[in-house]
Amino acid sequence: MALVFRRWASSVPSKAHLHKPLPDKSFPAGYKLTGIHAGVKKKKDVLDLAVVLSTSPYPTSAAACFTRNAFKAAPVIVSDDVLTRNAGRARALIVNSGCANAITGKQGLEDAWAMVKHTTALLPQNKNARETGTEHDALVMSTGVIGQNLPIANIIAGIRRASDSLGSDFAAWERAAQAFLTTDTFPKLRSRVFTINGVEYRLAGMDKGAGMIHPDMGPASISFSPRQLHATLLGCIMTDAAITPRSLQTALTYAVDRSFNSISVDGDMSTNDTIIVLANGAAAPSSDGRVHEIDEETDRDAYEVFKKELTEFAADLAQLVVRDGEGATKFVAVNVKGAPNYKDAHAIASKISTSALVKTALYGEDAKYAFLINPALTIAKLWGRILAATGSVPLSPSSSTTSLAAATPAVDPTKVSVTFIPSDGTTALPVLVNGEPEKVDEDRAKNILGLEDIEIVVDLGMGGEGEATYWTCDFSYEYVRINGDYRS
Fold this sequence. Notes:
single chain; Ubiquitin-like (UB roll); 2 domains; 7-stranded mixed sheet; 6-stranded mixed sheet; globular
């Protein structure tokens, strides 16, 4: 009985090692930002309002991917509208935590527009940065409790105070990152330096999310049919490269598909999920007071470099969300390959990653208790659940034939293989090869089950080049406790 109690009371591993200082020189030029307490959250020492301003003398391109949830929150609707009005230009971002401003009717929209207007007023006047004046030069994001109105007077007062603490060093970036947080255990902030045609540029970004995470985001101003509901992931990425609005949007859409749209904590999509990118050209070579913006049609090679850097950076940020998943004790990469196409591989990886049976098995087989169980049998239970999830996903019809029956491929169980790959660099553990179970080494199984990071490879053996990776975590008792008590 004492052992059972210890399992219920088992602690979640510390995530402190994932939060680290970054050198000031790694942040992009031409941005000032801060995080303050504005009174959205009750505790006065908790930051709850972030402001990001582009101070570049050049036009700032903006792109976004928004939730496809049918119940889009007011900030999602308003930010989409701003991007449409400004043809992909915006110079500021305002973010609050503690209240999602979702399902709040007309008042919610008015409050989101007020946040946009008052944040725009903080921007420096610059003829080159905005060739036509507008009171709507900011985007807005909110996260927290759904169905409650914002304390908008507090937020407006906070926006006006924000200019007192704006900065561009690590401390300023970290304040902004902290103001995003709800049930997160650490601020998620990263930066990187990259080069295009001999010119050095920088990317920096922050995101938040620990629960209600299974994003399905698409580009701005596009209609999508409703999908299953999923909760809040917010993120913003800033760069001092110069890129046209349309190319920034296509690069972000590609990157989000392979990063934020490929993570899951609990299989639930938010009303507020938003990823925003700003590109202000502050580090780009200039002449006659203007910069040349990279475009996917006229500068294909430069665009591909930028897209690759953005995708890798977005994946780094997205993985931090999974690592900080509510109650998570394991970080799991699910790689599906040998599928007919990327879409099918991605759908199967998603199904495995959201299976409650898979996720609870990942938590339940803690190596601390392996002396009570047969590791070979427990890992067999796990991969059995993985296969059950795999076989439940219908594959997309092929366009190579007109016969519907012949055009829809199916997984052949006799060709499927499953392998567990440990993160410590030791030997991989095949558990199923071409549909035949392998004899499992119990010591290897015990070691792998005890690791914090695990990769699961499912090879469908269909001969296709489709391959996709999804990042997920386990379900623990702590996840239930957090969500039973959650009030932001």
